[in-house]
């Protein structure tokens, strides 16, 4: 079955034969698509997200944009509160898990024959989109907040993208990109549902690495929710296909300094956000807020927040064991520790390193 665009309230459908990222009346879109799984086949295929080819909604193999990314390692990682499974997604080509989404979204953009795209990001999504656009020879313009880490700016530029720095908030950057998107295709990781059908492969790999079952608990970052929503899709696909016995609880982590979703769920007024070490999840107005909250609730999970001190301490502890994450990624370690401290009986708990520490060297030096 071919994928079909479907509005979030399921009222409207659009063909995926031509390029689009939003409904005619501004509705957010998802995909109606039936993923197929072949566990016996996976052993004979090369490592990486595209081994789950029949679960990824790209029609023709010739359009696939991939560096033959490897399945990222899943290691046992000791914390003072217990041992967790840690998936090393910082080892992707552009240095973050966003490459999963970019590989699928840019493949679809190639399939559409779109030659020029515009995108906005607080950093890593811009790196990932510029990286896969370079592979596909697609011309690319990226808008980022002027405060983005210089190493990410250099990376975006060196991939050949046109880089536009925007003064002001993350929302000002989105506005500038929106305007540019009147003329060019908007390859937004938040809006374009094909991106989520890339991030979902994180869960497929965890499933394979747990002998084709799932851990009890997944601790995930909650910024725009591109990972949470992708994983929610994948859990439902595996559940529907009867391919897992455990349905994981999603524990969604926000920084105390910017926690709009946590506050909404707990009926706490939302103060103006403050700066945080976890810049990658400092999203004050996530466009898919309702969907993220629904996904976490459906999994019987919860939102939790971590303080700047907890992020910093977990960053130190992770580095001391030979893993060098972005500061943002340390928020998930801090979240896993907080969860374990209150739920010591949990049998399997998994989180990830979302991004490479080399991307935020400037911010890390300031902490030394
Ligand atoms: C994007 C990103 C996140 C958060 O992901 P969302 O999709 O915004 O929820 C976490 N860590 C890093 C390093 C990121 O780049």
Model description:
By secondary structure, the chain is an alpha/beta fold. Helices cover 36% and strands 17% of the residues. The strands form three sheets. A six-stranded mixed beta sheet has the order 4-5-13-10-11-12, with helices on both faces. A four-stranded parallel beta sheet has the order 8-7-6-9, sandwiched between helices. Helix 2 (98-112) packs across helix 3, helix 6 (193-199) packs across helix 8 (226-240) and helix 11 crosses helix 12. The longest helix has 16 residues, at 327-342. The protein is globular. The termini are far apart. Pyridoxal-5'-phosphate (PLP) is lined by residues 96, 98, 124, 221-227, 280-281, 283, 326, 328-329, 354-355.
Gyration radius over CA: 19 Å
Spatial strand sequence of the major β-sheet: 4-5-13-10-11-12
* Main beta-sheet annotation: 6 strands, mixed
N-to-C CA distance: 54 Å
Q: Would you identify the regions where 5 or more consecutive residues have pLDDT less than 50?
A: none
SSE order, one letter for each helix or strand: EEEHEEHEHEHEHEHHEHEHHEHHEH
Mean pLDDT: 96
Give the strand content.
Answer: 15-25%
In DSSP terms, counting alpha (H) and pi (I) runs of 4 or more, how many helices? Answer: 13
